[in-house]
Amino acid sequence: MNLLWIHGLSCSGNTQSFLCGENPSAGQLLSKFNVLYHPAVTWEGSEEEVVRLVLEDKVHLDVFILEGAVGPRMRKLLGKDFGTVVKELARRADYVIALGNCAVFGNIPAKREPRVTGLQYRFQDRGGILGKAFTSRKGLPVINLSGCPAHPSWLSFVLSEILEGRRLRLDEKGRPLELYAYLTHQGCPRNEYFEWKIESEELGTKEGCLFYNFGCRGPMTHSSCNRILWNGVSSKTRAGMPCVGCTEFDFPRENMLKTQHAMGIPAELPLGVSKRGYILLAGVAKTFAPERLKKRLLNEDK
Ligand code: SF4
Fold first, then answer.
1. How far is the CA of 216 from the centre of ligand 1 (A)?
2. How far is the CA of 279 from the centre of ligand 1 (A)?
3. Environment class of residue 48 by beta-carbon count within 10 Å: exposed (0-12), middle (13-18) or buried (19+)?
């Protein structure tokens, strides 16, 4: 299959992430494709040459990956606006993948520029540069792999499914269900602290939950970060850093490492939890929290 990967407004973080992939490695996975162009891994052929061949229908485009957002005043390709070329490429592709939160939702580059957008979304609004109704040649909307960056295994999963000819099941935001049906919270080893409402005292420690003070978005963020671990060993919350919700449309937020409170409880509650239920459970949990969870696991003197 022919694969084309180009950069929009991007820090290349998703390329960096993908190149760190394991089982399979980026090299192993890409070797199963004919990579027409990627700004970091192909040596022959310029981006313009490859784009021209695709737009002239001389080369079939099986998989088109965009990393980064699309906006005005970007580089021109073949004398055309970048956004126009992206639309023409997407129309010819069997599968279109938006890789990373900027390509999916616009996000950081879109924060101060209203004309910057993702492929099929601009923040929560469906549309983007390709429009609400866009589907690729195989009948799918844009396959959105949100995240800042997306986990390398998430892209590996999608590319493998495409290679195998299996139909991807997507959620309402175009994200593969196998990867985004879960919350970051599910699989986090701090869940016992969460249940008993025991807060972390500082970042980077093993004890406590980061939801109550440090703004952890794990209970409202769709990702498999605590099920498919980073580098096979860890995740933000495992390392003592709150989930900052980087797979959702509203990333990045202000004051990301601080929980906002209203009337003494977190202003945003875990998905599906009512304020009444939360207050009832919080009172009971705090009263009966086990003493062992209130101590340091290691280095009691610290
Ligand atoms: S640290 Fe975050 S993800 Fe982990 S249990 Fe607490 S709220 Fe959930």
1. 6
2. 18
3. middle
Determine the length of the chain: 302
Asked if residue 182 has its Cβ within 6 Å of ligand 1, the reply is: no
For residues 295 and 302, what is the distance between their CA atoms, to the nearest angstrom? 10
Atom index in ligand 1 nearest the CA of residue 270 equals 7
Peptide bond into 219 cis (omega under 30): no
Q: Calculate how far, in angstroms, residue 6's C-alpha sits from the geometric centre of ligand 1.
A: 35
| Ligand 1 mutation pick, 182, 186, 190, 213, max ligand atoms within 8 A of CB | 190
Residue 176, preceding peptide bond in cis (omega within 30° of 0): no
**pLDDT, tens only, 28-49:** 999 999 999 999 998 888 999 9
- Of residues 38, 105, 89, 77, the one with CA closest to residue 251: 105
* Percentage of residues of the chain with pLDDT beyond 70: 99
Compute the distance between CA of residue 89 and CA of residue 223 in angstroms, rounded to an integer: 28
pLDDT classification of 13: cutoffs 50, 70, 90: very high
Q: Measured in angstroms, how far is the CA atom of residue 156 from the centroid of ligand 1?
A: 26
Number of C-beta neighbours around residue 219 at 10 A: 22
Tell me the pLDDT band of 299, cut-offs 50, 70 and 90.
Answer: low
pLDDT at 301 over 60: no
Report phi then psi at 250, rounded to 5.
-95, 20
